[in-house]
Amino acid sequence: MTLLHPYFLLLLPLYLLIVWFLNRHFRRVEFSNLNLLKKAVKSSFDYSKILKFLIAFFMVLALATPVKKHMHQANKVKGYDISILLDTSDSMQEDNRFGVAKKIIANFLKQRKNDNIALSLFANYAYVASPLTYDKKSIEDMLKFIKLGVAGSRQTALNEALFLGADIFKKSDSKNRVMILLTDGINTVKSVSLQSAISKIKSFNIKVYTIALGKKGDYNKEVLEDIANQSGGKFYQALKPEELELIYSEINKLESGKVESKSYASYSHYFQYPLTIALILLLFLAIFYKQSYSKPLLIATAIFMLIALYRPQSDKQLLTSQNDTSFAVAVDLSYAMDAKDVYPNRLAFAKSKIEQLLKELTGQSVALYAYANKGFLISPASKDYERLSYLVKNLEPVGIKRDKADILKLLKAINASNKELKSVIIFSSTNSDYKEALAFAKRHNIKLYIYAIATPKGSIVKVDNRVLKNSLGDMEVFALKSLKTLANSSGGAYKIYSSSSDLGDFISAIDSKTSSPNPHKQKTELYYIPLLIAFVLYLLSLVRKKL
Known about the structure:
Layout: E1 2-3, H1 11-26, H2 34-43, H3 48-64, E2 66-78, E3 81-87, H4 97-111, E4 116-122, E5 126-133, H5 136-145, H6 158-167, E6 177-183, H7 194-203, E7 207-213, H8 221-231, E8 234-238, H9 244-254, E9 258-269, H10 272-288, H11 295-309, E10 313-322, E11 326-332, H12 346-360, E12 365-371, E13 375-382, H13 385-393, H14 407-417, E14 423-428, H15 434-443, E15 447-452, E16 462-463, E17 466-467, H16 484-489, E18 493-496, H17 504-514, E19 516-525, H18 528-546
Parallel strand pairs: 3-4, 3-6, 6-7, 7-8, 11-12, 11-14, 14-15, 15-18
Antiparallel strand pairs: 1-2, 2-9, 4-5, 10-19, 12-13, 16-17
Helix pairs in contact: 1-3, 3-10, 3-18, 4-5, 4-9, 6-7, 10-11, 11-18, 12-13, 14-15
């Protein structure tokens, strides 16, 4: 047993101080017969003083709130950090290997509720599609739109994928680190040696499960087996895509979360008992010592004590702002974004702005896209800003056609992947099809917030140390092409770049269209308020009578 609010015990010395003060200043009275007074004092003792003190004591004890502490044990699952590596080379289209693998991985994600999971893709090169995140729904959504050829098609950068997949763990603080590699081929890219990849895996203490898919001879069993054995993992073979489900199911069982015990406390309140005693004693005082208190104030004291015993609680409806905003952020990857009229170049500036934007968000869901000749989904809507920032920072225009920036293709890609996204912040400087893009935006009620990154004077662009030329053979200057009409006509807004933090207006405009009130009930114990009032009234009833 303990006291929840022990500081209320300080009221007891206050009571004693008031009693001492009253006795000291009001103890002298005029009496005509001194002998009779002495006889009266000897014959009776004033028990009301003890009764009054006990009433104050039990009221103060009730305010201090006696409670009994209960300790509980709760089970907590300790999650894993898991990096999934998926082969996206052309050979994965045989027997629909890629389609089946995506479905099985998506099902595996659903079972790993407490884990931090990353996804990397590899073919001609390897890249991180998603760094470690607890937002597995966004990875599931991403898998639906990943197609073969997204990282090239004809080669298999297996060693590079292992090295990159291991590098994901450099900021991991988990003791349980797992990598799952699925491939149907042999490493054909010499960017990273196998030994370098294995050394990286060992340095981060990662357990690797390697899965070979296809016929024997399609892959190097010895290499995959060696990778698994050296890391403490396991090697699996699947002749048919359907066998993958059993393999992922076994891995799920092998790497199940460890249960940890965590304690927490709850309290049982017992303030009612001392308060009831105080109320009974107050009744005795009212009956047997009628001349020692102020009757109206004592009645008021009893009323507020009864209110406290009723144990009032606040139960009011609060309306808080619930930010359920979802919008897309898209960055232009065309050659125009390599221009250096904005330091260090337009694309680098755009990426830094997006990272700055992510730091200022307060609960909005953001989908990430890139575009040039086509639109590309980088990440479905997510609130994992650290993950999105990682994707932006590592976004490079590799393996895509970049000769134009087609906002229409971007809008079609957004609408195809998520029809709920009705606001898009675009970082660009030009557009190849103004009228059709606007017509599409209006037809689908999409508002465009365009952040133009370019100067009116513009700049030339070099690719492989050669200056890009226009159709006439002259050096092409990529100057600012105003997209203001496109933005404003769609119901959005337009800004020209600056070095200051200037994206708040875009976010405010988007939030104002989608924010909604969130009703929330809040309960708070309020018994101490009427009880404190009762204590003050009780003191006043004694002081009033003395005066």
